[in-house]
Amino acid sequence: MTRWAMTADLRRCVGCQTCTAACKHTNATPPEVQWRRVLDMEFGEYPDVKRVFVPVGCQHCEDPPCMTVCPTTATKQRPDGIVTIDYDLCIGCSYCAVACPYQARYKTDKASFAYGAPLQSESKRRDDSRLSVATKCTFCVDRIDAGLAAGLKPGIDPAATPACVNSCIADALAFGDLEDPKSNVSQLLENNQSFRMHEELGTKPGFHYLWDKVDK
Amino acid sequence: MKVKHSGASAFGPNPWQQTSWDWRAAGNFICGGAGTGLLLASALFGAAAPASLRQPDWLVFAGLALVGLGLLCVWLEIGRPLRALHVFLNPQTSWMTREAFVGLVLFPAGLAAMLGVSGWNWITAALAMVFLYCQSRMLPAARGIPAWRSALMSPLFLVTAWCEGLGIFLLFGLFLARTSNAAHWLFLAVLVLRLLIWYRYRRSVDESLAARARRALDLAGQRLLIMGTVMPLVLLAAGWLLGGAWQSLLSALAGACAAYAGANVKHTLVTRASFNQGFALARIPVRGVRTGP
Predict the structure, then answer these.
(1) What is the rounded CA–CA span in Å between residue B35 and residue B105?
(2) Neighbours of A45 (CB within 10 A)
(3) Do A93 and B79 count as a contact with CB atoms less than 8 A apart?
(4) Is A25 part of a structural domain of the chain?
(5) Which domain holds residue A65?
(6) What CATH number is given for B23-272 in this structure?
(7) How far is CA B4 from CA A43, A44, A48, A199, B9, in A?
(8) A180 lies in some domain
(9) Mean of the pLDDT values across residues B58-86?
(10) What are the extents of the domains in chain B?
(11) CB contact, 8 Å: A214 with chain B?
(12) Percent of chain B having pLDDT more than 90?
């Protein structure tokens, strides 16, 4: 079995938002829709202040609340753990959006463009099936599937790896198979201490945050 | 290290109010609850109504109309209204689908009850309660909103709907020959029960609430206490003391107050207190030279 997962090394992320831009470029999301976001958090008080950049998005939970509440079965979970949305089934009720503890879902009712009128590239990639329905990060599932079909290894070969991971200038993001003990994410999790967000809710996210090395 | 960001989470930006569901979603819970409550009240106490109200049964009609209005609100909310029938595709796990399925049989059953077919008012009331139960499970299933995650949310919605339904039933009392004392006593009992469950619910979510959600719930709680409980009780007592036409009028007013307060609670829960929990970091990254243990 395969369980695709992502790790974000909070020690490495510099908040450059390149992953956000790469995601928007790859998935042609409209303005104000960011399937991959990087939060800029500040903790403490002067002079003891820490700044942390936190990549967020769909956590591809093992027990996704968005899927169980969905009345249409538009939100599905693949055997490899990736949570997907069937835009042709979704009715845009937004039940999944209020069920998601990670604010990962978006619904846009009208087509919008970066500079008002659509640019040539925006016209070319316009997809009205994504209007008035829920959308979110897909872990670039098309790239993964095409890569696997071509004999590539997601997380290692860029053509089979999510765009945000490919673009990360600090090597903070990693993608791979949790079930494979030799995969990059398994190795990272073994050698580092990590946590998952809102773990108390029992959603079992497939997105792990690394925060310190393991004491050996 | 002190945490700069406040809120329910240990770390992270402050929670913000969800904007996915607005008054239209609240309308489903308000009208659906009131309608199903009225269908139950109609089965329990409708026999006292004069024949002019019972052939066809306008109480049942009003209950169904309210439920239908609630469903219309949902239809207005969804992004792709022409695909509304897809709502029936996930009865395995979705309470929204289950509610829709029950609604599908509730209306024909209600029509039979409305036309006076013997026994169907009880079947309609039972289906209305199943519909209401499905509805009451919808918000707790949404794990993104701390104010909705309480196990007491479902009982609160159930008893609030009974209050609203009985309240509207008493409002109809203006047109009935009389409303039975049993209806008054049951109304009184569910009013008190609603307040008790409200306080228990409020305590159960207190720690996880954002400050603005807490303020919104406190305001709704105040209204529930004064307008939704104390005023109806005083009006009912005054009606009993004065008797005659005054009793119908004051009972109707009591019913209206209780229904309004219940609707206000639901509106607040869906649109005002529905803050998410923001983002939270369980740990802050350790960079450079490590200090401490």
Answers:
(1) 15
(2) 11
(3) yes
(4) yes
(5) 4-211
(6) 1.20.1630.10
(7) 5, 5, 11, 22, 12
(8) yes
(9) 96
(10) 23-272
(11) no
(12) 80
Q: Look at A10 and B10; give whichever has higher pLDDT.
A: A10
pLDDT tens track for B79-105: 999 999 999 999 999 999 999 999 999
Q: Is A48 on the interface with B (CB under 8 A)?
A: yes
Cα B191 versus chain centre, distance: 13
| A100 interface with B at CB cutoff 8 Å | yes
Secondary structure, 3-state, chain A? CCCEEEEEECCCCCCCCHHHHHHHHHHCCCCCCCCCEEEEEEEEECCEEEEEEEEECCCCCCCCHHHHHCCCCCEEECCCCCEEECCCCCCCCCHHHHHCCCCCCEECCCCCCCCCCCCHHHHHHCCHHHCCCEECCCCCHHHHHHHHHCCCCCCCCHHHCCHHHHHCCCCCEEEEECCCCCCHHHHHHHHEEEECCCHHHCCCCCEEEEEEECCC
How many domains does chain A divide into?
1
* Nearest-by-CA chain B residue for A76: B90
Contact (Cβ atoms closer than 8 angstroms) between residue B96 and residue A95: yes
Contacts of A87 in chain B (CB under 8 A): none
Domain at A61, CATH number: 3.30.70.20
CB–CB of A71 and B94 under 8 A? yes
A216 within a domain of the structure (yes/no):
no
Distance CA(A199)–CA(B1), nearest Å, equals 22
Record the pTM. 0.92
Each residue of B169-213: pLDDT tens digit? 999 888 766 678 899 999 999 999 999 999 999 999 999 999 999
CA separation, residue A103 to residues A34, A37, A43, A185, B143 (Å): 11, 11, 21, 24, 11
State the average pLDDT over residues B156-170. Answer: 97
**CA separation for the pair B130, B151 (Å, rounded):** 18
Give the position of tokens 């499905």.
B134
Using an 8 Å Cβ cutoff, are A68 and A207 in contact? no
The residue of chain B with its CA nearest to that of A56 is B279
Which residue in chain A has the smallest CA separation from B18?
A98
Return the number of other C-beta atoms located less than 10 Å from residue A142's C-beta. 11
Gap between the Cα atoms of A202 and A184, Å rounded = 25
